[in-house]
Specification:
It is built from 4 helices and 13 strands. With 260 residues, it is mainly beta. The protein has a single domain, classed as outer membrane lipoprotein receptor (LolB), chain A (Clam). Strands 6-5-4-3-2-1-13-12-11-10-9-8-7 form a 13-stranded antiparallel β-sheet. Strand 8 and strand 9 form a beta hairpin. The radius of gyration is 19 Å and the shape is globular.
Length: 260
């Protein structure tokens, strides 16, 4: 009994990652704590601008709206609607993220007036011509990966954990990822993605964080660079609103066709 009481006291006094015994336990503890700090937001909506750059630096811009629904006991649901330019207007993407099972994803193509299911084997493909893959834009559930703490270091002036994430789901385009999370708020600052050959494929930088509802941090900018092609994609976010009263009906397959 005394040993049990001592263990409880230690858990209450120290963050879990500080008393984890192995690099794997510490990596998992960091991921669990990051997830815990982002629970309870219920739902959200935001505006987004997507800027695509080719190797020569030429750009094209897309304007997008996004909605998300927090799901207890499973991954989140999200709906992404393209408003501009004309050739992608009213295109809509629906994603049901799952913790361990393959995600369910659908794409509505207004020109064809049909809903296309995204096969699990295609999750590593580019999302709407960007450098973000379909698997990158689904919610990052803890159980999707195994973890290992690699080191602590300073990144962009912030003390950060560096952890390794290895996908535990089929058809991932990555063998592993290295993620930097700041120690104060457990926000993702950077992710390096390694391809199926183990080579560095892409780097994500998340910046310009803002806090909402006195708890939830959201990056206002995400830059994804493809080191092999020289292409990059920038996402800028604005007008975040939380707790809008969305329900599952706002994220069913019929919502793709209703999206305007």
């Amino acid at each position: 009994m005394n040993k049990l009481l001592i263990s409880i006291v230690l858990l209450s006094l120290f963050p879990l990652e500080l008393i984890a015994e192995t690099a794997e336990e510490k990596g998992l503890a960091i991921a669990v704590e990051a997830d815990r700090r982002d629970l309870g937001w219920q739902d959200s909506q935001a505006s987004m601008e997507m800027i695509l750059r080719n190797r020569q630096g030429d750009t094209s811009t897309r304007k997008i709206r996004s909605r998300a629904l927090e799901v207890t006991g499973d991954g989140d649901k999200s709906l992404t609607i393209f408003d501009h330019p004309a050739d992608v207007k009213n295109t809509a993407f629906l994603s049901f993220t799952h913790a361990t099972e393959p995600d369910d994803q659908w794409l509505y193509l207004p020109a064809l007036k049909r809903v296309k299911r995204i096969a699990s084997a295609n999750k590593s493909g580019p999302f709407m011509g960007s450098e973000f893959a379909y698997e990158d834009i689904s919610s990052q559930e803890v159980d999707k990966y195994s973890y290992k703490w690699l080191r602590d270091e300073t990144f962009d002036g912030q003390e950060a954990f560096v952890i390794e994430r290895i996908p535990q789901y089929k058809h991932s385009g990555y063998t592993r990822q290295e993620a930097w999370l700041d120690k104060e708020h457990y926000r993702v600052l950077k992710v390096d993605y390694y391809d199926r050959k183990g080579a560095l494929l892409k780097t994500l930088l998340a910046s310009e964080y803002k806090q909402y509802l006195d708890q939830y941090w959201r990056a206002q900018r995400m830059d994804m660079e493809n080191h092999l092609t020289g292409k990059s994609t920038t996402l800028t976010w604005s007008d975040f609103q939380f707790r809008n009263g969305y329900t599952d009906r706002d994220f069913d397959r019929n919502s793709l066709k209703r999206a305007r």
